[in-house]
Specification:
265 residues; mainly alpha; two-stranded antiparallel ribbon; 70% helix; ABC_2_transport; ABC-2 type transporter transmembrane domain-containing protein; transmembrane helix; transmembrane
Length: 265
């Protein structure tokens, strides 16, 4: 009687790690296209910042000098910062919806590296933030009330764009902590409150001493001073420390929650 050995199982090929951990232009295009199809995203990115710029444009006193320009330029930079921060935070918080529908769990089955995933979110947030900044500045140009040198205008836009990374990180952090659509319900009013308290809408000089000293510790204070520095040439060292510290805090928080999430099976 002849015995036969069962065939040995074919070796399983090791899954090849894609270049850059899976970060690629195709993924970026998909993310951008998905966001631009969302009406809520369009409202946050285009309509809300433009409405704020027009609303503040009806105020008096725009022609008073402020740094190398006037008060109109001061307000314009502030509104661009708020619109970009809100947009970047909303993009970052989409991880909450992706987790609620199981999309993040599906991504963990792919070769996509978690760092590449967060980097994709950051680039998308910067892209949408840039769109919000351009919208606000275009409204400002059409109004014709903001006056500042072209070099200051361009520098302020670039600095504002990089400052939005802080709020993209905040959005990711909140998206990993808060479930589903509740993320923007917290971020929206929260950013508005931080903007008022941090001197983005109202100069801190108009606040009481107690409120002003509290404002120095809020996340919006540092970035507000940094974004307006090209115009005002006034940037206290503690404002820079504030901006860097909160950026690192939000990055660390997002990385910590991401590691907790990706560790689940």
């Amino acid at each position: 009687m002849t015995s036969t050995n069962p065939a040995a199982p074919a070796p399983v090929a090791a899954r090849r790690t894609p270049p850059l951990g899976g970060f690629n232009l195709t993924l970026l295009k998909i993310e951008l296209r998905r966001l631009l199809r969302n009406r809520r995203t369009v409202i946050f990115t285009l309509i809300l910042p433009a409405g704020l710029a027009l609303a503040f444009g009806g105020q008096s006193g725009w022609q008073q000098p402020a740094g190398e320009g006037n008060v109109g330029a001061y307000i314009l930079i502030s509104m661009a910062m708020y619109g970009a921060a809100l947009t970047a935070a909303s993009v970052g918080s989409t991880v909450a919806l992706e987790r609620s529908v199981g999309w993040s769990r599906q991504l963990r089955l792919t070769p996509l590296n978690p760092v590449a995933y967060i980097l994709t979110k950051a680039v998308v947030a910067l892209s949408m933030g840039a769109l919000a900044i351009l919208t606000v500045n275009l409204i400002g140009m059409l109004q014709g009330k903001a006056e500042m040198p072209v070099s200051v205008w361009v520098t302020a836009m670039v600095v504002t764009l990089f400052c939005t990374l802080t709020f993209a990180a905040l959005g990711v952090f909140v998206g990993y902590v808060v479930p589903g659509e509740n993320a923007m319900q917290i971020l929206g009013p929260g950013l508005a409150l931080l903007s008022f308290l941090g001197g983005l809408f109202i100069p801190l000089s108009q606040y009481a001493d107690v409120v002003r000293h509290i404002a120095y510790w809020t996340p919006m204070y540092g970035v507000a001073e940094v974004t307006r520095a090209p115009l005002t040439h006034d940037l206290p060292w503690y404002a820079v420390v504030n901006a860097v510290a909160w950026f690192l805090i939000f990055i660390a928080g997002a990385a910590w929650r991401m590691s907790k999430d990706t560790a689940r099976v």
